[in-house]
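chain and backbone:
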Amino acid sequence: MWCIPEVSAEYVAAMEDVLDLYEEPYDEKRPMVCFDESPKQLIAEVRERIPAAPGRPECFDVEYKRNGVRDLMMISEPKLGLRKVLVTERRTKIEFAQTMKHVVDMYPDVDVIRVVLDNLNTHKTASLYEAFPPEEARAIARKLEFHYTPKHGSWLNMAEMEFSVLSRTCLAGRVPDEATLRRRINACVAERNAKRQPINWRFTIRDARSKLHRLYPSTAA
């Protein structure tokens, strides 16, 4: 269920900016990428599972071992049905900057990459300057155009749909270590990329003005 924020012209402006971007036709020189992050707890079994047998379900011990947390960096190009996931140990400005450099390296021949992302304090152009020399940071920044979802508006980010698929498929259940995490993610991403099935986003600015009219400030005198 969506969290409906207080009426705010700032919220509406950011929402319509993202929705307007989603409605544009695909432009190979100005691709749109959705970016999001999500933590994944690594949990190992302390005892071997007992496999299912006729008349008996699989059994496992409720006790487990924590092996730390990894951050998943989702890079999704929904109009082409492509995605890539980077696994990092932390979730700081440095990791964000390195991921944005990776995005730029993925599209060497485009004019600009429009990136839809949450408006977090790490998701800023300034993060590039904390990770790279100024010349390199500026070169990366020139290739990026950030489009921020509004506060409490992460539902607008199509990268969340990709995380939902991951959590229901390859990341369902316990993941014991980083190697297993990477192996599962890579297999799932490869399978989905092979299908090249784009995300069919249907919610438009017109829908927003009709169905979410409560979010719009009143223009009455």
User: Anything to note?
Assistant: Residues 94 and 131 are 5 Å apart (CA to CA).
